Amino acid sequence: MPAVAGFADAFGDAHPRRLSGRAPLRIGLLVPQSGPIGLFGPSSINCATMAAAEINDRGGILGQRVMLVIRDSGGTAGEIVSEAERMIAGERVQAVVGSHISTNRLALVDAIGGRIPYVYTTLYEGGQYSFGVFVCGETPEQQVRPLIHWLSRNRNARRWYMIGNDYVFPRASIAQAKRYISEIQGSVVGEEYVPFFMEDFHANIDRIAASKADAVLIYLIGEDSIAFNRQFAARGLDLAMLRAAPVLCENTLLGIGAESTRNLYSATGFTDSMKTGSAGAFRDDYRRFFGSSAPIPNRFGVSCYEGLHLLAALAERAQSMNLFKLQSASDGTALRGPRGDCMMTSNHLSTPVHIAKAAGMDFCPVANIGTVAPPAPKTAIWYPKDGGAA
User: Fold this and answer.
1) Are 291 and 284 a contacting pair, CB within 8 Å?
2) pTM of the complete model beyond 0.90
3) Are residues 54 and 83 part of one domain?
4) Strand, coil or helix: 18
5) What are the pLDDT digits (tens) for 311-364?
């Protein structure tokens, strides 16, 4: 693979280091290659690989070359915990970075949280304020609230129907979305949850049609989102109702098909068609690195890219990979990535947010919301009583 200097200055004003002769810093990359969000795997692996190359071109992390140990995060919670334990004990990984469904994140936090740094990269339902767990992705406060408010002001969306997969991420996110709908004096006219890998959504769509909703908030993941949106459009509801899909990305749009994406919106910090300087520079680097036929660098891949650069930035600021020192240095850590300038507070990144509308198989930003800070925790992040080992 070619060397890539990269545009993202994850180290702030620090000067590039020389790689030392020490053994590589082994980082576990847990990304979906199967399961409900397996279609996001190729972009995630590519983006993480490019980030590791950029970090190594700058002298690694504190002089140590980064080596990725890549494993599938698409299995059950028990399987991913077993995989992480093998990576720590047998493959000597010193940090874990990855994108996976929230059920697996919660299991990993219980299993490895507080032992090694864990960077969770993708958007999620919020509320994970744990020692040594650093979050890149948008929370509902940063993403869904601006989306609901914008659609209310600009598309008169007042009556909302909710549908999602039946697990913690959709349920917790929709619970928060109801508050945002009350802020616009809107109403919820229906709510339902379905298992993974649904093939027939016609009964659900019948109920949505009967509800006379203005908009549908869709928390369906991967293949389920593709099947639902195809059937929704085939019914002709794409002309009469708006769709707001926080989890959507270009890979999902390719599956849905250009003819089925009318009136389909999301909120995000990055799309492959975004015209900002940071997004364009990343996109150009990605094409040079992998070629024009590479998988589209979607929001899930970009989150893995930023997750590795965030780990490097934390280590540079702390001048250590010690978990206590990383946690102590985390507030105020700055990151310039594909989304733009972000800053960490309470183990979460602030992020620029854009409203994006599907245009065929692209996501085109239609409004710039600005940088949105993460919500503050209700209680302080727990620290080990001994202050951490040196």
Assistant:
1) no
2) yes
3) yes
4) coil
5) 999 999 999 999 999 999 999 999 999 999 999 999 999 999 999 999 988 899
Instruction: Answer yes or no: are the C-beta atoms of 126 and 140 closer than 8 Å.
Output: yes
- Does 112 map to a domain? yes
Q: How many domains does the chain have?
A: 2
Q: Which residue, 96, 83, 94, 92, is CA-closest to 48?
A: 96
Contact indicator for 227, 255 with CB cutoff of 8 Å: no
Enumerate residues 6+ apart whose C-beta is below 8 A from 325: 318, 319, 388
CA-wise closest residue to 43 among 261, 284, 303: 303
Q: Is the Cβ–Cβ distance between 238 and 262 less than 8 Å?
A: yes
The 3-state DSSP class for residue 108 equals helix
How far is residue 259's CA from residue 102's CA, in Å, rounded to a whole number?
31
CATH at 224: 3.40.50.2300
HSE toward the beta carbon, residue 81, CA cutoff 13 A:
14
Tens-place pLDDT, residues 100-119: 999 999 999 999 999 999 99
The per-residue DSSP string of 67-104 comes to EEEEEE--S-HHHHHHHHHHHHHTS--SEEEE---HHH
